[in-house]
Amino acid sequence: MIILLCIPILANAQEQQENGSGRLSIDGKPVSIVVDNVFGSVNVLGSTANEVTYSVKKKLAADSKSALQKGWDEITMEVIKRNDSILFFLKAPYICSKWTGCSKGNNWDGGPEGYTFQFDVMLEVPSYADLHVSTVDRGSITIEKVSGELAAFHVNGEVTLRDAVEVTEARSVNGNVTVYYNSVPRSDGLFSSINGKLRVFTAEGLNARVAAKSMNGQFYTSFAHELIPPKLTKTVQKNGSKTSFRLDESYGIQIGKNGPLLNFETLNGDIFLRKL
């Protein structure tokens, strides 16, 4: 069941916004939630309720009333419940994505004409939900108190995960990535940014293999560790005439015994692995 409470507000002749909200029942079943945003923040909070509640703020700005109306009519945030998944994605004539059945994949054919848009998404989800969240600009990604699998992707902004249990990926291109585990990680995780710092905090008693790579930064940790020798990667040309070996450029350490692989990659930023 979806309940929409839409309150359009016309700030002036070139701006308009609307607040929409809804609720979806889960009935205690496993659920995977996808938020595929472009411009705007995504904030998610885990709860004990067996439902997903959401609030979406839609904001448009345009050069003229006609462009504003055109944009208002053609760009929407779709909310779809499909089997064990709930999808939040943008729909417009110029947006091509797998959610809309477009065969070209994630791509834009042209773009918004004469207007800009932003969707700020706030979710409250069952704490056991799996999340796959992405956005591009004009906001941040924050996920808190969700124990399911987490994957978060940003381009121009920060990614922050709190009370996390299982982080498969946390990425940004131009922004910091910060992860607070509620205990110690029990599964492999990838943390990356091109122009940003990577900060991961876990409880004491960590057992993990750590690989860290930064061209213009340093790796810091407060955990006792042992160095792992870099690996040689063997490559053989297709015709078998030449065999070469490449030295792995990542910095490897072992904390405790065995454990998951925590992989850190950044170009221009420092890497921190610290105790809570």
From TrEMBL:
From the Swiss-Prot or TrEMBL record, give the protein name: Adhesin domain-containing protein
Organism name: Marinoscillum furvescens DSM 4134
Q: What is the lineage of its organism?
A: Bacteria, Pseudomonadati, Bacteroidota, Cytophagia, Cytophagales
